[in-house]
Amino acid sequence: MELKDKKVLIMGLGTLGGGLSSVKWFLNHGAEVTVTDLKTEKDLEKSLKKLGPLSRKIKFVLGRHDDEDFKRNDIVVINPAVPKESPFIFLAKKNKKILVNDARIFFDTVKNRTVAVTGTRGKTTTVNWIAHFLSAKGNKVTAAGNSSSLALLDLLSGTKNRKGPLVLELSSWQLELLPGAKRSPDVAVITNLYPDHLNRYESMKDYALAKANIFKNQKRNQKLILNKDNDWTSFFLKLKPKSKIYFFSKKPLGRGENGLFLKDGLFYLREGDKQKEVLSKNEVEAVIKRGEHNVSNFLAASLASYLAGVSFSDIKKSIKNLPDVKYREEVVLKRKNMLFVNDSAATSPDAVLAAILRFKNEGRVILITGGTDKNLNFEPMARKMKKILGPEDVFFLEGSATKNLFRELKKLNYFGKSKPQLFENLGDILKAIRSAEYEASAGKKIVLFSPGAASFEKFKNEFDRGEKFDKLIRLNF
């Protein structure tokens, strides 16, 4: 896409860095840039300060959007948090403007081999483990994207002299405009699909179609990895991907199904009519110790790495050094008989259940949960909580999702005659846990911060939430 002297409207500067990356990218490529944001100059003070002298090259329209900007500019850059149904997006489409986001620009430009991962759960862990495996022989590998501190457009500026592959985490929002790009990922992975982001999408089908864009324009020589154990995989197959399909599964694969699977405590690779053992029971057990759900993440990551050129002998050597992923069931503090786990990136009820099931066998789980609603169903989580956790061991953070969880728990008479332990902020919750004298009681306790919801009522995002939890833990314990 030729950008010199093009008029570009960036919709949403924001406070988290994505808008800044877009501004810098287009300015560096000679575009005439206008930034528009519903937030005021005061709201955006930190972001504006980071632009520094570049601000003099930009036209700002803040605290509002003007119709005329969506008519006169050639390209409209849509940044995160802009609703799909925004009337200004419709106005841009009506005036036949080019709509892009960071992923669309990235795949229009990048020359490196790419492995891209999407899904509801497990994508960040899978991305980090793929990068770990691809680095096995000293390859220069970079992970970036949705939950990384490295934005896609920041990554582009350094790819010219980098020969190694890029491993990307792509959100459903980033994938919405991907079909317009020149390229698709060389290896695409969909970890799974569960109800999420239903405050943005009209239905699960709408959400699934956004995820499917990761493979929509793949070519026959590219690869697509799907989760055979997930109910939505059949939906993706009905869309008839052109790329070569591989599966990962905790159950044996059938004839004609290529991929990696678990059988009798061993991992097997199946390609065509050939099937071979690639991981022993000891190696599989080392993976299972990281949690049952991480078996699927490992299957996806190791299969993607294999298809990207890494041998299973190298993958086996790398298992013992698998990295923990920040804010995903991350052990952040051990103190006497207490373990503190930061699972701030758990933004759906399914993720909370996975964390509870992982740690309940290690000791008494003390759960901190709650946050902002995304139109998700909390009934399964409520039922599991009733079976596993007593109300005295659950601490709730105020939020719209918390109200929905309360409603489901009350249907089950979860609280009985006791009152829910509801708090306005994390600091007060941790003080309450400390004063409950869990440390003095016998046996191991796991304080699990797993919100199961978004964070926008009290935090910038789940990473800001996780960072604040870490700081508060160290202040209180």
Widest beta sheet: strand line-up: 7-8-6-9-10-11-12-13-14
Q: Any idea of the CATH class of the largest domain?
A: Alpha Beta
Q: Tell me, what's the shape?
A: globular
Question: Helicity level, as a percent range?
Answer: 25-40%
The CATH architecture category of the largest domain equals 3-Layer(aba) Sandwich
Largest sheet: 9 strands, mixed
Structural class: alpha/beta
C-alpha Rg, in Å? Answer: 23 Å
Mean pLDDT over the full residue set: 91
User: Could you tell me the number of beta strands?
Assistant: 20
At the fourth level of CATH, the homologous superfamily of the largest domain is Mur-like, catalytic domain
Beta-strand residue percentage:
15-25%
Give the number of domains.
3
How many helices in DSSP terms?
18
Taking the alpha carbons of the first and last residues, their distance comes to 54 Å
Task: Tell me about this structure.
This protein has helices at residues 18-28, 45-51, 67-72, 87-94, 102-109, 123-134, 152-156, 172-175, 204-212, 233-238, 281-288, 292-307, 312-318, 349-359, 379-388, 400-411, 426-435, 462-476; strands spanning 7-11, 32-37, 59-62, 75-78, 98-100, 114-118, 142-145, 166-169, 187-190, 223-227, 244-249, 259-263, 266-271, 274-279, 330-335, 338-342, 364-369, 394-397, 421-423, 445-449. By secondary structure, it is an alpha/beta fold. It has three domains: 7-100, NAD(P)-binding Rossmann-like Domain (Rossmann fold), CATH 3.40.50; 103-321, UDP-N-acetylmuramoyl-L-alanine:D-glutamate ligase (3-Layer(aba) Sandwich), CATH 3.40.1190.10; 330-476, Mur ligase, C-terminal domain (Protein-Tyrosine Phosphatase, Chain A, Alpha-Beta Complex), CATH 3.90.190.20. Strand 2, helix 2 and strand 3 form a beta-alpha-beta unit. The model has no long low-confidence stretch (mean pLDDT 91).
